[in-house]
Amino acid sequence: MNTSQEPLPPSLGRFRVTVATRPPTERNGLRDWLLRGLNDRAQHHQGPHAQPEHEKPHSWWRVMCLTGVDYFSTLGYQPGIAALAAGVLSPIATLILVLVTLLGALPVYRRVAADSPHGEGSIAMLVRLLSFWKGKLFVLVLLGFAATDFIITITLSAADATAHVDENPFWPSSLKGHEVIVTLVLVALLGAVFLKGFTEAIGIAVGLVGIYLALNVAVIGDGLFRVVTHPDQVGDWTTALTTQHGNPLVMVGIALLVFPKLALGLSGFETGVAVMPHVKGDPGETPQNPVGRIRGAKRLLSTAAGIMSVFLITSSIVTTVLIPQQAFEPGGEANGRALAYLAHENLGNVFGTVYDLSTIAILWFAGASAMAGLLNLVPRYLPKFGMAPSWSRAVRPMVLVFTGTAFLITIIFDADVDAQGGAYATGVLVLITSAATAVTLSARRRRQHGRTVAFAVIALIFTYTTIANVAERPDGVKIAGCFIAGILLVSLLSRLYRAFELRVTHFEADSVAQTFLRECGRRKIRLIANEPDSRDAREYSAKIAQILADNDMADDRDVIFVEVTVTDASDFETELHLKGEVLHHRYRILSVQSSSVPSAIAALLLYIRDTTGRRPHIYFEWTEGNPAANFLRYLIFGQGEVAPVTREMLRQAEPDRNRRPHIHVG
């Protein structure tokens, strides 16, 4: 394995470490194709939702259509799921959903957009608010629920697209009854698109969303006209309401209880903040203060929520009043496709087929948006934490993993939209709950007491909704549990596998440190690794005496101490800033902060070698205690058996032993 280091001029004091590459003689066609772009993504992953530097940003309403393929596509199945869950109470339960959307989820994600304007989302906010291993473990759990959300988005959307295909009167009867196969084909085609190379086309999203919403206006508008002109049907509905549920308070109470089953209508907010890098900002604004982008993203979220709220309420009214309740049951003609049922029944099979094609297309793009979200989310966190193999930065291997997982979920749930609704709602609700928690902690940290209370109330509402949904339909948490267990297992194995990997992405030295190295560069460079304690003169004189005795040395001239302070040992990739200083008018010290002592020292030795042209010598003392326990200390706390780990990192980073820095242990 070769590791490419790019030395910069010593006067600049910078040194960048890039990802290992194979020699040209070891090239493999299939492997190169799968891992294409891996080195480019090494240090700064550019997910499909991220904005390439050369890409032109777009108006907020155009970007709204990009996230709308996920959010608006839920109209394909949400009215049917609401009618199945709430029965004749569907409009009341949907009204509660709309109120929670406008008064709960929308304010939360407007705050997320302000605090995370580069598309990182609420998980990134929690990463900043929670440090060390507790933060990493919490993020891994959230990633499990996020994977549930996105994977189920792919499978549920494909299953609902299959339902629209299967129920279309022009679809050959010989091909009906093969929902699992058709859904697997749709998922495979989605994966094939990403394997070939998927570039999100906002123009296509605008066209799809525009056509789909226009067709829904026609279907719902026709339905509302029929409701108004046929008061007997409205009378039948109100009679059923009073007969089944009595007074209005009972209706509201029951609607509140069934509300968690309607949580699918809250999907799309996390995607909304993920696409923020595409939003055009104000002329001349800086990435550090993107006020125009934040304002555009807030308009995006508010407009999308407003449009969806109108469609949710009106669609629940027309589907509940005009469609017989038995048609919503599993196997019924309106199951998973309530608005499509009305399109065929009221506007004819030709219009209904056009509506079906539009619905299938936008459901397809909903799956694409979810896949893009996964490809943007996973490589952003797991490799950076050292909790995924390096190849997980590449798109194509991850596409194969996600597509295979979607296959498994489709087979387990038999491509059933209703069966997957609970799992989807669980993923959506957990992400929104985490976002509400993140903005609550953010407001509390800024001492915004009013907002802290308001966001805390919203967080409690979503916590209740999540718990109620899990209690009612535990499939979601079971699937999320499988994802979480898989992520934790992969993370542990990856952290062990990558334990000796050089994790420093950037190295920079100040002027004093450079002066030390220039002075010693003309002679033998000798360094002493010291664990800082009181940092008084006695500590350094005793350390020099010990190193001289342990290594049978007689000369203590030109000795420089190296001190590493561990900050957050749970971090993996870090940037190092070397500081030079003179203590007690005699002892020269090079100090640096890092997540790992051996990694920092190994990077420092390579930096010194490549900027001075000399192989430095460094002197360690053996660590007392059990070697296995010391290795665990290194994995968890970033320190322990430093000398052998540093040597192994250098061995892996530099295959040529004649170019490796010298390691001495006494």
Number of strands: 9
The gross shape turns out to be elongated
Report how far apart the termini are.
30 Å
- In terms of per-residue confidence, which ranges show pLDDT below 50 for 5 or more consecutive residues? 1-13, 17-26, 39-54
Question: What kind of sheet is the major sheet?
Answer: 9 strands, mixed
Secondary structure: elements and pairs:
Layout lengths: L4 E3 L6 E4 L11 H6 L25 H12 L6 H9 L3 H26 L5 H9 L2 H36 L11 H18 L5 H28 L1 H15 L2 H11 L10 H6 L16 H32 L15 H10 L1 H33 L13 H18 L4 H29 L3 H24 L2 H23 L6 E6 L1 H10 L5 E4 L7 H14 L8 E8 L7 E10 L3 E8 L2 H16 L4 E4 L6 H11 L4 H12 L8 E4 L1
Parallel strand pairs: 3-6, 4-5, 4-8, 5-7, 8-9
Antiparallel strand pairs: 1-2, 2-3, 6-7
Helix pairs in contact: 2-8, 2-12, 2-14, 3-4, 3-12, 4-10, 4-12, 4-16, 5-6, 5-16, 6-7, 6-14, 6-15, 6-16, 6-18, 7-14, 7-15, 8-12, 8-13, 8-14, 13-14, 16-17, 16-18, 21-23
Note down, in words, how this protein is organized.
The chain has 23 helices and 9 strands. The protein is elongated. Mean pLDDT is about 80; it is low at about 1-15, about 15-25 and about 40-55. It has helices at about 30-35, 60-70, 80-85, 90-115, 120-130, 130-165, 180-195, 200-230, 230-245, 250-260, 270-275, 290-320, 340-345, 350-380, 395-410, 415-445, 450-470, 475-495, 510-520, 535-550, 595-610, 625-635, 640-655; strands at about 5, 15, 505-510, 525-530, 560-565, 575-585, 585-595, 615-620, 660-665. With about 675 residues, the protein is an alpha/beta fold. Helix content is about 60%, strand content about 10%. A hairpin with a 3-residue loop joins strand 6 and strand 7. Strands 1-2-3-6-7-5-4-8-9 form a 9-stranded mixed sheet, sandwiched between helices.
